[in-house]
Fold this sequence. Notes:
alpha/beta; two-stranded antiparallel ribbon; 15 helices; 11 strands; globular
Amino acid sequence: xxxxxxxxxxxxxxxxxxxxxxxxxxxxxxxxxxxxxxxxxxxxxxxxxxxxxxxxxxxxxxxxxxxxxxxxxxxxxxxxxxxxxxxxxxxxxxxxxxxxxxxxxxxxxxxxxxxxxxxxxxxxxxxxxxxxxxxxxxxxxxxxxxxxxxxxxxxxxxxxxxxxxxxxxxxxxxxxxxxxxxxxxxxxxxxxxxxxxxxxxxxxxxxxxxxxxxxxxxxxxxxxxxxxxxxxxxxxxxxxxxxxxxxxxxxxxxxxxxxxxxxxxxxxxxxxxxxxxxxxxxxxxxxxxxxxxxxxxxxxxxxxxxxxxxxxxxxxxxxxxxxxxxxxxxxx
Length: 332
């Protein structure tokens, strides 16, 4: 009992200090990115959870600026890769070149690609071929790449924020279901509201620019990520996570609507993603433990890319997000 009390007395002040730091990072990013508070929040949840995110939105909604801003605020090395149909795996992970020095034996030298960074923006990831997509997704999952049988570790922390344009589907290679599952969250980037767009006009078309300040370092971020994993989750929240994810799977009998309208549902990785994300969200809000409200709020971004409508649902004009909302209401 004394050990438990001692552990709580140790972790609570650390959680409170981490929450203050993360709130400062969120506030700093919001001074540059207008009208996208929820997007910033979900991107931070992804990073605090140690995961990767898929951002869906039309061009011009500050997705690139989001990555640059988070890189600066969180003290991470950030890079951007524009995915195109002719992009090769070596353009991402790197390649070997032959060093030829007069009088010495020739040897191969590995030149690292842009994946060797801490925060990578994969812009329009669905425009690259499946082979190139797989090269990036393997690095996302395993945190290393192998070239000519030699393993090369990727820096820690390592996070990918990939973007997709929902409108232009011609000439694209949609990510397979198994690869979509590698992304912790799907973040829908929508248009800003009127007031935010007005503020953006004044702030970005003049001569003055908001200067970003680095709030965290890579080492601090890793420490906070470990702290998020130590955050206790109440039993009722764990049961809500299990009930939601299992209700989203057809054939389990948990939901008649799911059985009738869903072709395939989320696997166990969705439960893991939701468990991590609710912890990160509670920390971001300054709370010491997640609640069922966190499960409801994160149901869409965690489940939307891990489910698919069947023919019946598409014929009836059903929307996946609406179905997920109804499932979340049942656990809420």
